[in-house]
Amino acid sequence: MGIAVQLKNMTKKFGPVTANSNINLSIEERTIHAIVGENGAGKSTLSKIIYGMYRPTAGRISIRGREMRFGSPREAIRAGIGMVHQHFMLVPELTVTENIMLGNEHAWLFGKLPLKIMRGVIMEEAGKSGFSIDPDATTGSLCVGEEQRVELLKLLCHNASILILDEPTAVLTPSETDRLFEILRSLKAKGKTIILITHKLDEVLAVADTVSVMRKGEIVATMPAASVTKPELAAMMVGRNVMLRVENPPSTPGKSVLVVNALGLRTEQGKQKLDGLSFSISAGEIYGIAGVEGNGQSELLQLLWGLVPHGFRISGDASLNGISVIGKKPGEIAAMGASHIPENRHRHAVILDYPVSDNLFFGRHREPLFHNGFGFSRKSIEENTRKLVSDFDIRCDNPAHQTLGSLSGGNQQKVVLARELNRPGISFLILAQPTRGVDIGAVETIHKKIIDARMKGIAILLVSSELEEIIALSTRIGCLYNGTIRREFSLEETAMKRGDENRFRREIGLHIT
Amino acid sequence: MRLQTKQLITPVLSILLAFLGSAAIIALTGRNPLVIFQKMSRAIFGSPYGLGQVLFRLGTLSLVGLAVAVPYRLRLFNIGGEGQLQMGAFSAAIAGAVLPGFFPGPAAAFICILAAMTAGASWALLAGALKVRFGINEVISTIMLNFIAQGITGYFLTYHFALPSTVHTAPVASGAFIPQLDSFTGLFNGSPANASIILSLGAALFFQFLLFHSRYGFEMRAAGLQAEASDYGGIDTARHILTAMAAGGAAAGLGAANIVLGYKHYYELGMTDGTGFTGIAVALLAGANPLLVVLTALFFAMLEYGGLSVNAYVPKDIFMIIQALTIFLVIGFNAARKK
Fold first, then answer.
1. How far apart are the first and last CA of chain B?
2. Would you say residue A66 lies in a domain?
3. Is the pLDDT score of B247 beyond 50?
4. List of domains in chain B
């Protein structure tokens, strides 16, 4: 077997920052080669260099034994390299066929598009690789898994033989992930080489032939995937041993804190987003909501935080410590002892241009503690900053002047967590995707803090698309499907089934699709 | 966000370069720029009257500057300072004219100032309400409101309030006059500088405290930077948009009181003469910092009066070029720094 991609002493610098340092890597033809690493380890830079988006500062790249110097992705595409980006590059108004042709129309400016021929090519390519797709559907109407297949087809129709996939499973459900892997295996059998960029170790072990681990811009190891275990991979990524599974001591729930009763939500257009949703959470309990995105999670979260869009119709009730939250504003709900860590922290939980210290009390800035009659009390703000920065190990040099936007994602996350978990009198916490975009090393800290909060008697609603996380943290689990809880796993069931994680994951997967 | 030296570099550099540019233009008209600049500075600093003139202009310019700067902190661009100034000036004049003569002095002045500020605030509030309720861009609505203000004041002046065969209203009751500084200090030799300068400086201090040291300002700036995050944080963003616009409009209205009650004592057609637009330049040059607004307003006040004083040698339009050049440079420097 030949070498598809070879990098020799490749280094990439952005100004003073070295993103990739002295990379030596050989990717064999007809294999699935995974590249794993934490955020900022240099995976994306590496993939973008292979794809011709960046030029290396030093070193050589050869494709199938021929040395290449790509000036642009267009040249890389001509050399048979294709990339599926984490965020799809599709025009939702166009059909599948039109999207695939985009940028490669085979027609003069005012000429007729060869749509029929292309349609045939697409059907043929799809058939060869073993997946079905409707070439006339508009891409906006497709689900995420299908959109990804369109992206793959696009590459295949452009005759790519080396496929780079950047975090392809980030948006997929477990069953869709399985399907993607089948497709990847069949593509490999057809002679394609696949480079898989990911941070999900289970997947690497499931599908990859070879795995390379990156840390701080360097490749620290390359080995056959069959010869390595998950904890070993995690340790290589982080550079120390990590606990992948936080300790979850048994819980003894107290009185019920949040009661959601037959909650319904209908959009202005009459679409039913939540439908007879009922569950309750007690003090000292983590209620995990498992589900594929778009089954009512965001609507539930908005509703519980008093941010229902204008014109939506609510039925049923949700009450916190016996008082209904329906129709209340976020500030009022927070004052009732609730706290919310939203999914999109960049947009919803922090002010990126404010200094770190201001963000450490943003949203809690009405608390009398931070005032001294005539404006903010600088002393108590400094005190608050010092305490939270050390308690949560937030890495920053000058919290009073450094803007939050200059911190890394994991540290931003810690800022939000620190602030919210320290709300005085908190009895209920909403956590949405608490570790999305966070490194393995930081996940450990965050999970520990969540369990700590539970032990202190806080009732926690956990919404996450990572089943692993739901299983690891939850006391009880509800499977959300089409706006209602389809199946709830009791305290005993959850504790028992947690033992065989893979099986539990499959079982939950059945109830959410 | 407090005052830092590096905040000053850009405006100072811009002003210097703009002066160099205008010196070149003056030289092109066949005059010696040094002589012109010398004449200007003599006009400004050479007499108490000149200083008073600059002080008077400083009052209005810093207030219309604040009218732009305060909403700008919420990422709202208030182009409507001119309209707000006009409405304020007209309201102050009408209130002063219809007020019965027996009203005690300070109360009359207070009522007229309040009328000016209310009128300016309401006019700006209209744009704020359109933004909050219908999502209409405040740049477009404030520009349009400028035209409407011009039409309304023009109509009421011409058809209802102008004294026969003039283009101005009846003078305000003498109790509504804001005392001129000259009258109680004897320092400014009949210049229009008046006590409202204290109000302008007070307004700048007030806004500086409000924006950067109070909870209200913390919320206001957050609402402008990231509206959605502010909603999650329990902040009423709509209310802050409305108050910021209203506060800006009220500042413009106060600026109008300086002209009407402190100097002219009546409303005259075209008396605001684009001063409201200069407020945009004042605010941008100051980086929308309320305290710096006072400094940049001082610069523009000197330019305005100095330009007027050398009108016989060089057309005063040259000084409008300096104004525009300065703003271009500020924007250019800021863009370059971001890169």
1. 20
2. yes
3. yes
4. 5-338 (1.10.3470)
Residue A51 contacts by C-beta under 8 Å, 6 or more apart in sequence?
A70, A73, A76, A81, A83, A164
Query: CA A508, CA A497: separation in Å to the nearest integer?
Result: 11
Within 13 A of A465's CA, how many CA atoms are on the CB side? 18
Interface of B with A in 231-250 (CB under 8 A): 231-236
Identify the pLDDT of residue B8. Answer: 77
pLDDT digits (tens, 9 = 90+) for A24-71: 999 999 999 999 988 778 888 899 999 998 999 999 999 998 888 888
Quick check: is A207 in a domain? yes
Looking at the fold, whether A276 and A419 belong to one and the same domain comes out as no
Percent of chain A with pLDDT over 70: 98
Domain C-terminal end among A238, A271, A296 = A238
Contacts of B339 in chain A (CB under 8 A): none
> Is this prediction's pTM over 0.90?
no
- One domain, residues A70 and A206: yes
Domain hosting A120: range is 3-238
- ipTM of model over 0.85: no
Structure tokens at A383: 């005190």
Q: How far is A363 from chain B (nearest CA, A)?
A: 4
Q: Which residues neighbour A440 within 8 Å (Cβ) at sequence distance 6 or greater?
A: A38, A199, A234, A237, A238, A242, A244
Nearest to A209 by CA among A220, A190, A219, A196: A196
Residues 6+ apart with CB under 8 A from B244: B70, B71, B73, B74, B76, B128, B220, B224
Number of folded domains in chain A?
A: 3
Mean pLDDT for all residues in chain A? 87
**Phi–psi pair at A169, nearest 5 degrees:** -100, 0
Which residues in A lie closer than 8 A to residue B210 (C-beta atoms)?
none
Q: Which among A424, A452, A476 is the end of a domain?
A: A424
A75 in the same domain as A29: yes
CB–CB contact A348 B214 (8 Å)? no
In sequence order, what E strands does A345-481 have?
428-432, 459-463, 476-481
Q: Are residues A25 and A60 in the same domain?
A: yes
The answer to the question of residue A246 being in a domain is no
3-state helix, strand, coil in chain B (%, to 5): 75, 0, 20
Instruction: Please count the other Cβ atoms lying within 10 Å of the Cβ belonging to residue A507.
Output: 15
Is residue A449 domain-resident? no
Q: pLDDT tens digits, residue range A177-214? A: 888 899 999 999 989 999 999 888 888 888 999 999 99
Side by side, the strands of the sheet bearing A476-481 are A338-341, A428-432, A459-463, A286-290, A476-481, A484-489
Mean pLDDT computed over every residue of chain B: 90
The pLDDT of residue B106 is: 85
- Kindly report the number of other CB atoms within 10 A of residue B139's CB atom: 15
CB proximity B215 to A under 8 Å = yes
Distance from CA of B281 to the nearest CA of A (A): 24
* Sign of the alpha-carbon torsion through A231, A237, A240, A246: negative
